[in-house]
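User: Hello, can you help with two protein structures?

Assistant: Certainly.
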Amino acid sequence: MSRPIDRARTAVAAMAPAGLSLVAVSGGADSLALAVAASQLPGAFGAVVVDHGLQPGSAQAADRAAQQCRELGLDPVLVRRVRTRPDEASARTARYEAFECALESTGAQRILLGHTRDDQAEQVLLGLLRGSGIRSLAGMPAVRGAYARPLLDLAREDTEQICAGAGLE
């Protein structure tokens, strides 16, 4: 069986078109593992970090995530600070608006999102609990428009292993 970093690199390479792609980085293991994989590939990879400002210290956490991306060699690295209500729907809307602005300002072709197999399972279960029926079984698509999720075949523990291998917390 191949190592998680090898699987991540292969998936990123398959989903990153020619030109600039941006990795959406929150500072968690999933998105940092995605940044590590992208940084080890030829091509142009940058990052976008969105600070929702909903928790004390969020600005420092966003700045730390951006610094880790710079240390990995991603360029450009953008930090977008947004205002949102504390509910998930508002935060998601603000995040995707920031992603759209990042695509436009950089000319990037794609935003890579760090969702894993664990997130996919959670999404399906939540959909079923909300009564979405059989439609929720499809889960998150690997690619939709400018957005791609290369890590859907990896578990969260795989991303933690990738980060540990790269010396990231």
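That covers the first. Now for the second protein you mentioned:
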Amino acid sequence: FFTIIVADKKLKKEEIKNKYDLHAKWYDLGSIILGLFISRKRKKLLENANRKVLEIGIGTGINLKYYPKNCHITGIDLSGEMLKKAEQKAIKLGLKVKLITGDAENLPFKNREFDTVADTLGLCTYPNPIKALKEMRRVCKKNGKILLLEHGISNNKFISKLQRKSEKTHYKKAGCSLLRNHIKNIDKAGLRVEEFKRALHGILYIIKAKPN
């Protein structure tokens, strides 16, 4: 497994998977508060999805209700327990969704397979986010789109200082980093940003990108 080092603490993918397996039962409840802030942003971003869609880090399927009707959705996640919740949501919504247990850094799909690739609040957890972004680029069609809604390091000095102080404890508890700069990582991964906005005091990154 790839590892990420934060404050001298290493977490392997298997450890991150286990955390989300344990959190799966309560994940949606914990997301309600966050959802009050970003549900409209999820909806607005994912309205841009079309045709054959891959959602990476689909989790419990929170986004499923936001996709347009013409989308054929495949979802992948490292946590099998989270996928069970996503399956229940898909059934309630009357959606046919293909759900796969897998790794964002090693996607089990062909090159240029999807019209839209989406990821919301996932890049904070992947041990190698640049590799995950390169995989998004690989599986996205040349004229396709990559839609990202992520939390990361704020451009507000006061907020970013608080994030740095909280990083060690938060990462150990939740398996996700508060300090990633997704715009820099996107550039390193060879993607072209078409639209970028910040929200929540600079913490939230809303990005539309394309394979470069």
